[in-house]
Amino acid sequence: MTYGQIAKLAGSPRAARQVVRVLHSMSKNHQLPWHRVINSRGYISINGDQATIQRQLLENEGISSQLDGSIDLKTYGYEPLQWMEDEYI
Question: Of 3, 19, 45, 62, which sits most exposed with the smallest number of CB within 10 A?
């Protein structure tokens, strides 16, 4: 999923940056699968060692990146079920 999709499902479609902060601040304590969330263009949004860790975790799950480093959202992206969108948005 993308940060924007999670923000939309949470009822705040313009809060993608807040989703980034929440996921990365809570992921260690709550074992959230933060590595499965990328930006809307298909890129990992963090830098340095954490980006390397995120890419490796995704690759371990069979999600490979393209030559430019992006992840093909048409192939690997998650689209929430329509009933979820109707229910929560």
Answer: 62
